[in-house]
Amino acid sequence: MILPPNLMQGDTIGIVSTARKITETELKPFLSLLKEWKLQPLLGKTIGASDHQFAGSDALRTQDFQEMIDNPKVKAVWCARGGYGTVRMVDKLDFSKFIQNPKWIIGYSDVTVLHNTFQNLGIASLHAQMGLEIEKKTFETQQSIYNVLFGNEHTIQIPSEEPLNRLGTATGVLVGGNLSVLYSLMGSASAIDTKGKILFLEDLDEYLYHIDRMTQNLKRNGYFTNLKGLIVGGMTQMNDNSIPFGATANKIIYDAVKEYDFPVCFHFPAGHILDNRALVMGAKTKLNVREKNVTLSFIEKHD
């Protein structure tokens, strides 16, 4: 797996939206943060563009992202917001120059499409807060992104007394992202291989029976077979029917994987939650789930 180069002060960061539309005004706090980090933001053509709910047409979003990953002056590309739409443009992208000169791609949720694509190309990417509302997240959220981008030590340790956790230690490449997006990518060129890896899952605003259906599909497709470990982040704002499903999202996932013996942790600080720590997707990691705490260490470094 290739880790993109670390950033340096003064580097240019491309800002794009591959999904839902967004204005420059909405990004002012984010742009101020980049300047605090001594990075130079370059707004793409999709910032301020509008095509119904999208940040411009599929063609514009494709062109904007393509230009940013091909531009040698742009050292990282940060997605401004999620929503839906990345899957409509990913197959039109040409990654030939990007493979020769990889750079950090930053985002989560709908950007899971890109994370999966880059993992299949052998290039790590950064599952992290979008530009939108980054100022509302925890200091740890912001600092974790900074640490990865600038090559500082990055380990996540949290206290945990979650009864659903399954204790143990695992080492493997970190893959995954948004459960709904992963589910939608099955059978496509962006589907991932979880064999011998650590899988991360998170989701937002889904019905509990949808969580069960998607999790059962992952199971039936062998995503949990030969898995080394499972990390469940925020399962946020879940919905239920008038006749309750009868289990929380975490319990649904727990029941789906209880027959396996890999370590599992829940309530990990990543996803659509206040504390959304950066995860290096595609990097080799070590997961240690203990009775009182959980540690995720990113052990893959630049050559």
Automatic annotation (TrEMBL):
> Which UniProt keywords are listed?
Carboxypeptidase, Hydrolase, Protease, Serine protease
Pfam families from the xrefs? Peptidase_S66, Peptidase_S66C
Domain named LD-carboxypeptidase N-terminal: which ranges?
13-128
Gene3D superfamilies given in the database record = Class I glutamine amidotransferase-like (3.40.50.10740), LD-carboxypeptidase A C-terminal domain-like (3.50.30.60)
For this chain, one GO molecular function annotation is: serine-type peptidase activity
Task: Describe the location of the LD-carboxypeptidase C-terminal domain by residue ranges.
Answer: 171-287
Q: Does the keyword Hydrolase apply?
A: yes
Active site: residue positions? 109 (nucleophile), 202 (charge relay system), 272 (charge relay system)
| InterPro entries, per database record | Carboxypeptidase_A_C_sf, Class_I_gatase-like, LdcA_N, Peptidase_S66_N, Peptidase_S66C, S66_fam
Single Gene Ontology BP term?
proteolysis
Cited PANTHER family: MURAMOYLTETRAPEPTIDE CARBOXYPEPTIDASE (PTHR30237), MUREIN TETRAPEPTIDE CARBOXYPEPTIDASE (PTHR30237:SF2)
Recorded family membership: Belongs to the peptidase S66 family.
Put simply, this protein is called LD-carboxypeptidase
